[in-house]
Amino acid sequence: MNKPVLGIPQNTIEILQKYDFSFQKKFGQNFLIDTHVLDKIIRAADIDKEDMVLEIGPGIGTMTQYLAEAAGKVVAVEIDKNLIPILSDTLSSYENVRIINEDILKLDIRGLALKENAGRPVKVVANLPYYITTPIIMGLFEEHVPVESITVMVQKEVAQRMQTGPGSKDYGALSLAVQYYASPYIVANVPPNCFMPRPKVGSAVIRLTCHAQPPVAVEDERLMFDIIRASFNQRRKTLANGLGNSDRLTFPKEVILEAIETLGKGVSVRGESLTLEEFARLSNYLSAASSK
Description:
292 residues; alpha/beta; Helicase, Ruva Protein, domain 3; 7-stranded mixed β-sheet; 9 strands; 39% helix; 17% strand
């Protein structure tokens, strides 16, 4: 059994100096240097030797060492080619780790997951670059990658948006999309001093446990998400105006008003007060109207 060592700040500094590594702002690099936080992530991800873990952005391999101890197999996708020799060094004693030097947003993750884990669901664990958090998470869901859970470090306010419900200022399209595909749970808040270099904002670890079946029945997923996006594009406007102004939706105004009236909330209701179930009902009504 190997002992993970990179969670200790002086060991991280040593490796960075050994390779004369420079942080790349364009890749949003902030390396974890807190063993307590690393332990919390591994516990929250609930990994055992039966699991294959997909890690996005392993950096110098800090969390990868912990994952390799717990999982049967780890596939880590790293965009920065300057980190590949470092990862070869820090992970040299782990035979169950595969490093892929690719951009996760351009990779066929579904194909990778199916091939590497014989079609079984994988667990995703990552300390995500904040600027591409949403595209990565939504990509995993929308491409129907076989995923059991996603345990990730994200910006604190993004974690709050994923978990919140109607009526909150943080509630929006991301909240509804995440909750359609998964059950979100904030595991821990993480202050800036747990990273090197320190980010300007607080972070949080969130676990998204993927639903076996979506919690609402929707005839047309794409239509529902077009409706959701349109209703939050202009938050201060009524739902009717938001849907009427969308270039993705082409329903006559009277049909939109009829659909909204079926919710029993009045036609001046705003999108931010609707639940996922109500968006599903609205979408199903409009889907049926368009096929008449």
